[in-house]
Amino acid sequence: MLLSEDKRQELLNKSKHADSYKDQTYGKNRFDRRVRSKIRNYVSEFNSIDMNLLFKDNILLVNVPIQGETNNYIVKIKMGGFLDKLHNELERNNNVLDLKSILRALINSFNSDNVYIRCSCEDWNFRFSYWSRVNDISSDISAEQTNNGKRIVNPNDTKGRGCKHTLLVLSNNRWLRSVASVIYNYVRYMENHYSKMYADIIYPAIYQQPYEKDVQLSFDDKNTLDTSSDTIDISNKEAKNAPLFKKGNTQGYRFVKNDSEPEAQFDFDSLNTDN
Description:
With 275 residues, the chain is of the alpha+beta class. The chain has one domain (4-270). It has helices spanning 8-16, 30-33, 51-57, 82-92, 99-112, 122-127, 129-134, 164-170, 176-193, 195-207, 229-239; strands at residues 4-7, 38-39, 59-67, 72-80, 114-119, 252-254, 265-267. The chain has a five-stranded antiparallel beta sheet with strand order 1-5-4-3-2, sandwiched between helices. Strand 3 and strand 4 (72-80) form a beta hairpin. Helix 5 crosses helix 9, helix 9 crosses helix 10 and helix 9 crosses helix 11 (229-239). The radius of gyration is 20 Å and the shape is elongated. The two termini are 28 Å apart.
């Protein structure tokens, strides 16, 4: 699946004033109509993160599940540089890794860095994938500028920069809470059960320095992290009832405001691993 790259706000801005639908009963254009779809935001829905890609290459690739008006879809979103921002958060937090630091780093990356996007829906395939290659904002620079031999239904590139599902994901950052939980749970699981791989791969990626304590070796040690959905599910279940923050913590993190949604105050005391 080819991914289109740009800063998320630029992608949104290019879509707000795109061509209008002939029938505007449910919204003027794709940007307006995005709110009729819904992000399936349970932690268990985000169990396909490639942890090797994240901790070895500093690339976060997330499959965001969407409940559309007529079907279910997957929006792929990719961000680079997350670990660098996480390291900056750790410096502010006395090198203590917690869910709050991971979430702040994710939001910072989402708001400030280029992102790659792609959707599994037909609208993307027939109206946006072609122009993502023509405009050189595709992750696959060698792709042919064709639409799989089918008639292009967006001939003048006037329909914005994405389908309503990708625009929904780009304009809503609350799903990052689930991503933060998955990453946090996985790191703790590996630290507790696979200390050698945690010391060799995860710790240096997070703290940008070698792990210097003794580690317990096991027969399961290898150079590749087990990043299967089953393992991520286990790490989520293990952390489900673990206290993530002390009671009484009133510090929050303010989301970026956009034109269509009210500003949201994130309550960190409400964070858990199963919603």
